[in-house]
Design goal:
Layout (H helix, E strand, L loop, with lengths): L4 E8 L2 H11 L5 E7 L11 H6 L4 E5 L6 H12 L5 E6 L2 E3 L1 H10 L8 E5 L7 H5 L5 E4 L7 E4 H4 L17 H5 L2 H16 L6 H10 L3 E5 L4 E3 L37 H16 L3 H16 L4
Parallel strand pairs: 1-2, 1-4, 2-3, 6-9
Antiparallel strand pairs: 4-8, 5-10, 6-8, 7-9
Length: 304
C-alpha cells in the first residue's frame, strides 16, 4: 500500500518568506499546502493574494480566520491532514531547504520509519556543504528533536499532545529520561514546567517530552540540510534574536540513492548526540567550554 505524503508550509504574515519556500519546493512529488495563521489584533494583515494566484496550479492555500498562535496552528493543521494522508512534512516559512533533500525525505517516508523513531528531520548538527559534496548522506538517531524541517507518520501522531500535564509524572519511568545527566534533567524539567502551565507556549518541548516518555528517538541527517532564516526578524517569535554562535557554515543536500536509510556507526552516533546536547540543551560540559571560548574569542577579536 502506497503511503501518501503532504508537505505543509506554515506561514504567519510573512509572504516574502513564504515565496522563498515555494520557489524552493514547488515541484516536489507530493501535495503542498500553505497554511496561514491570521495576524494578531494589533498587526496589519499581509497580502498573500499574489502568491495564491501565481502558485494556484501547484499549491493549496488555507487560512485561519483568527490568530491562534504557532503551537495551536501547527498541531491543528497536522491533525487535520492525517485524515487524508499517512505522512506530514512540516516546513515553517523561515526554514530554508532544497527540493532534493525534501524529495529524499518523501522517498524515505514511503515506508514505515523504524519502530524506535518518532520523527525524521533535516537539521543535522554540522555545517553541511562539504559533507554534502563528499556524498556523506548518512542518518543518525538522537534523543533531540529538531523543529526546523521535519516529518511524522500517522501511526505515531497519537503519541503527541500539547497538554502534557496528565503524563508528566510518568516521565520518571522512562529509560531515556534516566540516562540523562542530572543537569540535563533539570534543564528539561524547567522547560516542561512551562508547557504544563501554558500548553500553547510552544510545541517542540512537547515533542521532546514524548520522545523521552515513549523511549523514542528522532532521525536526523549527518549534517545540516535546512537553515533557519528567521534570526533577527522582528516578526519571529522564537528566533527574533541574532543567530547563536554555534550556527556556522551553510547547509548541504541530503540525497539518498534509493529509499534505504544508511546509518552511521554507533560510536559516531553518540558523538553527534553530544553535539546535540549543547545545541538543544546546553548541557555538554566539554562542548559548552568550547563554545564559551569561541564566544569570548569572537567578542575580543577585532578586524583591522
Amino acid at each position: 500500500m502506497n503511503r501518501r505524503t503532504v508537505l505543509v508550509i506554515f506561514s504567519y504574515n510573512r509572504p516574502d518568506l513564504t515565496r522563498r519556500r515555494l520557489e524552493q519546493l514547488v515541484g516536489v512529488n507530493c501535495q503542498i499546502i500553505v497554511s496561514i495563521d491570521a495576524p494578531k489584533t494589533d498587526t496589519t494583515q499581509a497580502d498573500f493574494s499574489d502568491l495564491e494566484i501565481e502558485f494556484s496550479k501547484h499549491v493549496k492555500f488555507v487560512s485561519v480566520s483568527e490568530n491562534i498562535g504557532t503551537a495551536t496552528h501547527i498541531i491543528t493543521r497536522i491533525s487535520e491532514q492525517f485524515q487524508s494522508y499517512d505522512n506530514v512534512i512540516v516546513i515553517e516559512d523561515d526554514a530554508a531547504v532544497d527540493k532534493i533533500s525534501v524529495e529524499t525525505l518523501i522517498g524515505i517516508l514511503k515506508h514505515r520509519l523504524p519502530s524506535d523513531v518518532l520523527t525524521i528531520g533535516l537539521f543535522g548538527g554540522m555545517p553541511g556543504k562539504l559533507l554534502s559534496i563528499l556524498g556523506l548522506s548518512y542518518w543518525r538517531k538522537t534523543r533531540y528533536f529538531s523543529a526546523w524541517g521535519w516529518a511524522i507518520q500517522k501511526e505515531d501522531w497519537h503519541l503527541f499532545n500539547l497538554d502534557i500535564k496528565r503524563e508528566i509524572s510518568s516521565l520518571e519511568n522512562s529509560k531515556s529520561w534516566q540516562r540523562l545527566s542530572e543537569k540535563e534533567r533539570a534543564i528539561w524539567s524547567q522547560r516542561f514546567h512551562k508547557v504544563v502551565c501554558t500548553p500553547t507556549f510552544t510545541w517542540d518541548y512537547q515533542m521532546m517530552f514524548y520522545g523521552f516518555l515513549h523511549d523514542k528517538k528522532h532521525l536526523l541527517p549527518l549534517f545540516r540540510s535546512c537553515d533557519n532564516e528567521g534570526f533577527g526578524d522582528g516578526r519571529a517569535v522564537n528566533t527574533n534574536s541574532f543567530k547563536p554562535n554555534w550556527y556556522v557554515g551553510s547547509r548541504g543536500v541530503v540525497q539518498n540513492r534509493g529509499e534505504a536509510i544508511k546509518f552511521i556507526a554507533a560510536p559516531l552516533e553518540r558523538a553527534f548526540e553530544n553535539l546535540d546536547k549543547v545545541t538543544w540543551a546546553g548541557s555538554s560540559t566539554f562542548m559548552s567550554r568550547i563554545h564559551k571560548y569561541k564566544s569570548h574569542l569572537l567578542r575580543t577579536t577585532r578586524v583591522h
